[in-house]
Amino acid sequence: MAFWCATSTAGVHLTPQEAAKRRPGDFAPARLKERAVVRGRVVTRSIRVLDHFEQTGIEQDGYGLVLESRDGLLKPLEPGDVVEATGEIAMRAGLPVLKVSKVRVVGRSPAPEPVAIPLEALQGFRHLGRLVMTEGRVLEAGENTAGAVLLLGDRERPYRLFLPHAQEPGASFAGFRCGDTVRVTGLASQYCVGAPYTRWFQLTTAGSSGVVLAGRALLLPPMAIFAVMAGLLAFGATWWTRERRLRAQREALRRSHGLAEEILGASSIEDIRRRAAAVAPAIFGVTDVRLYLYNAGSRTLEQVPDGEGEAPVIAPASPRGGAESAVAACFQNRTALAVPDSSRSPFPPPEEDAPAMPRAVLFVPMFAQGETVGVLELAHRHRARVFTHDEQALAQHLANQMGAAVKLLDQRSVREQLFRTEKLAAVGRLISGVVNEMRAPLASICNLAETMAAQKTPPRSEQIRAISAEAQKASEMVARLVSFASNEPVKARPVDLNRLLRKMAEFREREWKARGIRVRATIADEPLPVRGSDGQLEQVFLDLLVHAEQALQESAEKTISLRTMRLAHRVLVEIGYSGGHGPEPDAAANLGLGVCRSIIAGHGGELRTIFGASGDPRFEIELPRAELERGRAPAGEPGPSESSQTRTALLIEPDETVEQHLHTLLAARGYRVVPVRSADAGLDLAQRLRFDAVFCSVRAPGLNWVELSESLDTRVGVFVLLSDGYDPELAAGFEGESRSVLAKPIDDHNLGRALERLESRLGNWAAAG
Hints:
Layout: H1 2-10, E1 12-14, H2 16-19, E2 35-42, E3 47-50, E4 53-60, E5 63-69, E6 81-92, E7 95-108, E8 115-116, E9 131-143, E10 147-153, E11 158-164, E12 181-190, E13 201-204, E14 211-215, H3 222-264, H4 269-284, E15 288-295, E16 300-303, E17 313-314, H5 323-333, E18 337-339, E19 360-368, E20 371-380, H6 389-454, H7 461-485, E21 493-496, H8 497-515, E22 518-522, E23 529-532, H9 534-551, E24 559-567, E25 570-577, H10 587-602, E26 606-611, E27 617-624, E28 647-652, H11 656-668, E29 671-676, H12 679-688, E30 691-697, H13 705-711, E31 716-723, H14 728-734, E32 739-743, H15 748-768
Parallel strand pairs: 1-2, 5-7, 8-9, 11-13, 22-24, 28-29, 28-30, 30-31, 31-32
Antiparallel strand pairs: 2-4, 2-6, 3-4, 4-5, 6-7, 9-10, 9-12, 10-11, 12-13, 12-14, 15-16, 15-20, 16-17, 18-19, 19-20, 21-23, 24-25, 25-27, 26-27
Helix pairs in contact: 3-4, 3-6, 6-7, 6-10, 8-9, 9-10, 10-11
């Protein structure tokens, strides 16, 4: 009886597995509040959880149990001690524990090594109370009122690592970040405050040394890295596609700008169509290019011949269906018209003799100065295709350039006809004088021939030479008249003014003698060279001499004076006469003087009418002097200082005479010149076309030249400012690496010096572009 009472007081002998047994349902301890004696090996030193209790673990046959004490009974125990713990089985937040009232060391064994258990296997009851080691990825690091906490594993079922503050004050897991891999060692435990007690398993460690970093987290999680890589690949593909498309667009723009420059320099409508047909198919992906120009006289659209059959003529008011109806609609509505597939065309089918519509076609109106001058047709014969918005905009730009080129050709033709008319008017004034001039040598030839025919002896050599001399005079008069009246192409070449004036004086000498006009000529024998057109300068001097002759008809003293001189880089020609009070010249004479001033201004010079102190008028002609060098290249070919590369220049000059002169000088140096009259038009053109150089007058209307030069700084190679005279302050403040000032009147020498200074800049800019 006494033995039974002692056993009952001490409790039932249980193994750790039996003491930690759970009951079904809420999984609370099955032997809750029973007294028991449990034997096992201590696995770790005691861990103080809170200030009022401590815990350790014992194990036997692979099963463990957590011992708990409030009286410091567990503190003397060492790992490896074999103990018998007596106490009451209780529950600490779902964990079965033995609240020890007595503990006795009954043996000693080696300290147990931590058992490596996967993190997933610790999410259960099997290893509670054992010393385990596991590894996992950090989900979150933080702390609560009891200690530092580290969540490991899966977010849906995390495993908690707990380091009590009572065990290690100030402990923290702040050095770990999400995604780090850690290796932890401690007492397998549980902290679940509510039934069922199947959750929130944890590992209680005795110190921060039980947590070891096994691997740092990637800056981005694998899924994020995959997403970033996928995003980069998608971005790269998008960028490559976009860059390829932009490269194709840049190539199309480059070709279209080059085509626009060629079109502006075309010599005829057929040349415009030929150049467009050679380049536009590659830009727009078409097979045919056609041009239709509006004839205001017949009110029809006439196709520019392309060498394939007869060019049709379209009446916009009554087209014959098919392509003609589309062209007429585009012209009348002044808007682009795209037909992706002609089989679905809204236009009526063509009549028997009308041309059929291609498979895919784009019709674009050609505008110039607000006026519709024609229609551009881009067509693909064999397949349907959609013309994009960008392609239609580019086609409209090209069509506008064609319209501007057509207008330029019309204006050029009008100017040439006007000049021809003025020249023929001057020829008409010379007819009577030339007839009188030719009567004398022809009469001499006839008399000498009759005398020689009446003689029975052979003719003498003196008579034959006299006939030859008179015939030569008549031939020179006819050749001079024909040369003057011919439509001579303007080519700049060296001309000796002294020689030209002497020839003109000899030409008019007989007429002057017949009219009683005395001539005082101060013309040196040495050459006085200028650069220009021999025929045009001859026309000027002849018109001025005839004007002087007419003014001397009613004058008592009839005197004409001729004088030439050299002034630095200029030459001066004076033609004076004493008939200042004669009759006023008529309208024809005024027209002739206007033509003379235009010609001289086109040569970079100036024609002035001056009245001296005695009232006698004189003409002063000032021209830039040129150098007559040995081995100089013939006119029309680039000289040694001229660039062999064709460059494009934009000329902004409101004065037509100065424009013509500079156009001639630049063309002689191999430049393709595009003239405009205002700075606004020049800026608009420079934004759409590529120019190597811009020549801008300080008096150009519209945008001032300072803002224009700044706007075009990166768009053109060089900017040349045309000033009214030499201004040192303007030159010092404006001239730079790519800018220069050129003073009027402009001569070939000064222009050459300016272009030589800027040639290196032009070369570098062209290479960079």
